[in-house]
Write a structure and sequence with these properties.
The structure is a single chain. By secondary structure, the chain is an alpha+beta fold. The chain has helices spanning 28-43, 47-61, 81-93, 97-104, 106-115, 122-130, 148-155, 157-160, 166-183, 193-196, 221-230, 274-279, 281-285, 316-324, 327-341, 364-370, and strands at 164-165, 188-191, 201-202, 205-210, 234-240, 262-271, 301-310, 343-345, 350-352, 357-358. It is 41% helix and 13% strand. It has a five-stranded mixed sheet, sandwiched between helices. Strands 8-9-10 form a three-stranded antiparallel sheet. Strands 1-3 form a two-stranded antiparallel sheet. It is globular and about 60 Å long. It binds 2'-deoxyguanosine-5'-triphosphate and magnesium ion. Magnesium ion binds at residues 193-194, 202-204, 206.
Length: 383
């Protein structure tokens, strides 16, 4: 092939849920940059701008080749003027000045460090930033009022910002399996989130739990939590009850994309894997500026974020789809349902406004079919 020939245009669908997006792709040098701008927009609560950058990045992730010139982007959807400008700069100069100055700005770095604390959202981080705080370490001398989640977040800051490996996720799977089976025989446990999509590393481990007998899953979480706690496996947990039936705004139209399942945000105390204790333990705490938990070199455990969700069997397919991600893929599924199909999709149900009825599904495949979409397996939902 001639060296400067542009790659033949790829026919690309405009919704991420219409495309296959593998985990490993060819354009990280561009998508990392666009995602910095997306994150920065989130820090200033500019959601529209953030989603625009995320959609642009996602299109590049779905490309089967490296982008080498602007010509390679011809006919691609979702690439706005701003994203194109950034891409052009990177293709020509190797970096984008806007991305680099964002990355290096005091505000961006502080917002990143503060929102990296478990339990701290953008609003809180922004308030702290305006009060002069720059890192979790600043929280202690200023005597900020912290809720229980944030206290745990500060205490285990280093561990919780050390990516969870697939191996660790598997160990936690075994523990959760054991806990759930002990309190409700016959229950079904599914690993969801990034690990279901094939990621090697994650920020947490997500599980969905159900039981084939509808109703058997009610009030299950406190029992699971009790079992785990009695084994000394929990450093923190907050359980919220199922509020789906009580909600006034109708099942498929929750107030936000937050769902209403019985849910437990937790921090597990995970015994270090034999092979990791010698080689990796010290790296958890060394060389990191922030973090407040002094841990001795011989420490044999570490803190890991685990999310548990309990779903009734009749909603399990929707919950599985809703909890597998990626976040952008989920958002695009809901947008597709609403804008293209006149339907409303949540992690609980799918409502067809034209037919004025809920559409049932026993599998993710059936949900894609209801939505008129080709089935995309979890490993290709990395939008
Ligand atoms: P990571 O960062 O490695 O944990 O990556 P993910 O993709 O596992 O992200 P995570 O754990 O934040 O969330 C897993 C998926 O679950 C995410 O793609 C969307 C969904 N999800 C997270 N929180 C909620 C929620 O409150 N409600 C609903 N409906 N879905 C949620
Ligand atoms: Mg996750």
């Amino acid at each position: 092939p001639k060296p400067f020939e542009t790659t033949p245009a790829v026919k690309m669908k405009s919704y991420a849920c219409q495309r296959r997006t593998p985990l490993k792709h060819h354009n990280s040098f561009l998508t990392d940059a666009l995602e910095i701008l997306a994150q920065n927009a989130e820090f200033s609560e500019n959601e529209g701008r953030s989603v625009a950058f995320r959609r642009s990045a996602s299109v590049l992730k779905a490309l089967p080749h490296v982008v080498r010139s602007m010509g390679d982007l011809k006919d691609l959807p979702c690439l706005g003027e701003h994203s194109l400008r950034v891409i052009k700069e990177i293709l020509e100069d190797g970096t984008s000045s806007e991305v680099e100055s964002t990355r290096q700005s005091e505000q961006f770095q502080a917002m990143k460090a503060l929102t990296d604390v478990f339990g701290v959202g953008v609003r809180t981080a922004d308030r702290w930033f305006r009060e002069g705080l720059r890192s979790p370490l600043d929280l202690i001398p200023t005597g900020q009022k912290l809720n229980h989640a944030q206290q745990a977040g500060v205490k285990y800051y280093n561990d919780l910002n050390t990516p969870v490996t697939k191996k660790e996720a598997m160990v936690i799977s075994d523990i959760v399996e054991k806990a759930v089976k002990a309190v409700l025989p016959g229950a079904i446990i599914t690993l969801t989130g990034g690990f279901r999509r094939g990621k090697e590393l994650g920020h947490d481990v997500d599980f969905l739990i159900t039981h084939p007998e509808e109703g058997a899953e009610e009030r299950l979480m406190p029992k699971i939590v009790n079992w785990l706690d009695n084994q000394g496996l929990l450093l923190y947990q907050k359980t919220t009850r199922n509020s789906y039936l009580e909600s006034k705004d109708g099942p498929a139209r929750p107030a936000s994309n937050m769902d209403r399942f019985e849910r437990c945000f937790s921090i597990f105390k995970l015994e270090q894997l034999e092979s990791d204790t010698h080689t990796e333990t010290s790296s958890y705490n060394s060389g990191r500026a922030a973090g407040t938990e002094e841990r001795h070199a011989g420490s044999t455990w570490r803190a890991v974020r685990v999310d548990l969700v309990v779903s009734p069997y009749s909603q399990f397919a929707f919950a599985t789809l809703g909890w597998t991600g990626s976040k952008l893929f989920e958002r695009e599924l809901r947008r597709w349902a609403g804008q293209e199909k006149g339907m409303s999709l949540s992690s609980h149900a799918l409502y067809d406004s034209k037919q004025q009825r809920y559409l049932r599904a026993n599998s993710e495949e059936e949900i894609f079919a209801h939505l008129g979409l080709e089935y995309i397996p979890p490993s290709e939902r990395n939008a």
